[in-house]
Design a protein that fits this description.
Elements: H1 2-23, E1 32-35, E2 44-52, E3 55-64, E4 79-86, E5 92-98, E6 103-112, E7 115-121, E8 126-133
Antiparallel strand pairs: 1-2, 1-8, 2-3, 3-4, 4-5, 5-6, 6-7, 7-8
Length: about 140
């Protein structure tokens, strides 16, 4: 029972430290290589996220076909999102470049473990995709 109390205290302290870091502008930027959902042809993108100041930025590194081979794409080398500012709830908000539709959308990024949820909206509709952490 004593061990249980210590575990609860440690979890509480960890959560409190995370909230304090977010409030102090120290939201952790989700860095890594993320795989997008495949499009209708089975092509998916590999997108590298990184910190740019206190914000979140990303660039498309590769495009792959459903067999896993490199696929030609104009998206490779392009910024996917940049200067996405941390929000009090731990998400990031800013502009996302939809590589397939070649348009810029207001977007929110949230990370849950090894999944990144991207919600992108234009003037009339919103779409949501899930990216998976590759490395």
């Amino acid at each position: 029972m004593k061990i249980f109390r210590h575990c609860v205290v440690l979890v509480f302290l960890g959560l409190a430290a995370g909230v304090a870091a977010q409030e102090g502008g120290q939201t952790e930027v989700p860095r890594g290589l993320w795989q997008t959902e495949p499009d209708s042809l089975g092509v998916f993108l590999l997108v590298r996220t990184r910190r740019c100041g206190s914000a979140l930025c990303a660039r498309v590194e590769r495009a792959k076909n459903r067999a896993g081979y490199d696929a030609p794409s104009n998206a490779v080398g392009q910024k996917a999102f940049w200067a996405m500012r941390p929000q009090p709830d731990g998400s990031f908000y800013g502009e996302y470049r939809d590589a397939r539709a070649r348009r810029f959308l207001q977007s929110r990024v949230e990370v849950f473990g090894r999944k990144l949820r991207l919600r992108a909206c234009d003037q009339t509709t919103c779409s949501e995709t899930i990216w998976t952490l590759v490395q």
